[in-house]
What we know:
mainly alpha; globular
Amino acid sequence: ARTRFNDYSPLLRLQRFAEARDLLLDCRVVYEAARAVPQLGRVYSALADLEDATSGRTGDRAAAARFEQAALGYKYQAGEPEGCAYSHGNLANYLERLGDDPALVLAHRLVAALIFLQTQSGQLPVILRNLAKADLPPAPPPFAEVVARVEQVPGVRFGDLFEHLPRRLPDGDAAIAAVWELANAEAQRRREAFEPLLQGIAAAASDEE
């Protein structure tokens, strides 16, 4: 099953969606029988990815969110911080596309950013860009509120996980403040990069008049 699972991404790129789904469902049966927790986390994330990729065809964005929530439960059980971060980020994307509560979307993105920040992951810039593109509230939410929101997903124990991460910053609120500052800096950089383009468009429109 582990060997076959590696065929999933190529099948998805080739848009052979039915084959990809059959492969993942077969792998899930094997992993469930073997109680292979880490592998179940990965297969549920892959199922979520498949549903999102095929939304509007045979896929279902609500199912994508449900599969990613299931993946999170297994990844927390397996104790995989980086895997948890990826799933929180993916779930935020799926919930956003579903038009879910912006505060819940933000909480999952912040959790992904906090894990990447504390572990000094090279994936942090990706989450920061997603945060920078969002309409952020004036001030960040308290760490306890973020924990409460994401722990609505069965099996998610982010408060405990955070306590076992490397201590790049002393506590959750300090880490959120750091992420907030980085996200706002990225948003400012994006605005400055687009400003010359906007001025050019305005000048061109003025010339046409």
